[in-house]
UniProtKB/TrEMBL annotation:
Cofactor note: Binds 1 Fe(2+) ion per subunit.
Name recorded for this polypeptide: tRNA N6-adenosine threonylcarbamoyltransferase
Keywords per UniProt: Acyltransferase, Cytoplasm, Iron, Metal-binding, Transferase, tRNA processing
SUPFAM superfamilies per the UniProt record, alphabetical: Actin-like ATPase domain
Residue sites binding Fe cation per the record: 114, 118, 305
Length: 336
């Protein structure tokens, strides 16, 4: 009857999420239980605390996802689950639950790469979107520039050599005393600041390289703050936020446009938590218009970690014939 229902689980970091997805792109429910408040007081995600909270949460989140989708376990045709990259203890909670479900319901299990999941968020948002395209994946853990040639077929053109873009946002936010997660806070403050106030370094690396590096920029911001604080000079948090954000965005946008030109691809896709950044969306939109590229990005809720994107990726892996068995293990440093 052409209807395949995926129950998808995501627990790679600090979000316990469960979704019900029909035929890959139709989201019947996408429940996200965030642990952000729990980790806030530590200024970042504490892995052991995250694992324990996932265990507490996951059954309830599954029930909620089924209820909102108005289905029961009997309607589930397959299980999709993130098996890496991420925090090993956190991943194992989702993975063990997924295996138990697949075994007891006697349905196929499909393991999903979390980075791939972020890309697939775009297929949910944009029903007509198809590869090939260039995808910039920017999150708390990853900064990848990828040529997606077909479903499941990727050429990694560049990635970060040190900090991920989101990590840089979070670390700078912490130095500014803003709290966690820092990305959205810096994004908001930037709107009130002058992005040309401070000329922070843009790291392009070797000529033609599509790799990224954000640790130098992060150090430059920390040095700027320390120097001014030592001298008793007043700091404009808004200007620092805006200038830092612009330095990140300039490099991300330049390299993405270069990648699209080099691969002769007309479509560009944004993914990952930092894809929620308003400055990045604005500048990339403007540059794509100038250069004649089509740009797609997911809505804010689908940018950050969620299980719907995992359900979508699992469906396309399933169509390709991929099945996992009960030996599937968590792979904390899984590559795309
Ligand atoms: O994709 P995600 O939810 O988790 C990972 O897989 O890492 O991304 C989280 C990251 C965090 O570093 C957060 O600060 C960043 O995305 N982020 C943002 C914004 N919203 C979330 N960074 C910049 N601007 C935003 N509006
Ligand atoms: Zn993520």
């Amino acid at each position: 009857e052409g209807s395949l229902i995926t129950l998808a689980l995501e627990s790679s970091c600090d979000e316990t999420s469960v979704a019900v997805v029909r035929n890959g792109r139709e989201v019947l429910s996408n429940i996200i239980s965030s642990q952000v408040d729990l980790h806030k007081k530590f200024g970042g995600v504490v892995p052991e605390v995250a694992s324990r909270k996932h265990i507490e949460n996951i059954s309830c989140v599954i029930d909620e996802a089924l209820e909102e989708a108005n289905i029961t376990f009997k309607d589930v045709d397959m299980i999709g689950v993130t098996y890496g990259p991420g925090l090993v203890g956190a991943l194992l909670v989702g993975l063990s639950t997924a295996k138990a479900l697949a075994y007891s319901l006697n349905v196929p299990l499909v393991g999903v790469n979390h980075i791939e999941g972020h890309i697939y968020a775009n297929f949910i948002e944009h029903k007509e979107l198809k590869p090939p395209f260039i995808c910039l994946i920017v999150s708390g853990g990853h900064t990848h520039l990828v040529h997606m040639k077909d479903y499941g077929v990727y050429e990694v053109l560049g990635k970060t050599r040190d900090d991920a873009a989101g990590e840089a946002f979070d670390k700078v936010a912490r130095a500014l005393g803003l709290g966690y997660p820092g990305g959205p806070l810096i994004d908001n403050l930037s709107k009130k600041g002058n992005k040309e106030a401070i000329n922070f370094p843009r790291t392009y690396l070797e000529d033609k390289s599509l790799d990224f590096s954000f640790s130098g920029l992060k150090s430059a911001v920390l040095n700027y703050l320390n120097n001014n604080r030592q001298k008793g000079i007043e700091i404009s948090v808004e200007d620092v936020a805006a200038s830092f954000q612009q330095a990140v965005i300039d490099v991300l946008v330049d390299k993405t446009i270069t990648a699209a030109k080099r691969c002769s691809v007309k479509k560009i896709v944004l993914a990952g938590g930092v894809a929620a950044n308003s400055g990045l969306r604005e500048l990339l939109t403007a540059r794509c218009r100038e250069e004649g590229f089509e740009l797609k990005y997911p809505s804010l809720r689908l940018c950050t970690d969620n299980a719907a994107m995992i359900g979508c990726a699992a469906y396309y892996d399933y169509i390709k014939g991929y099945r996992a068995d009960m030996y599937l293990n968590a792979v904390p440093n899984l590559k795309l």
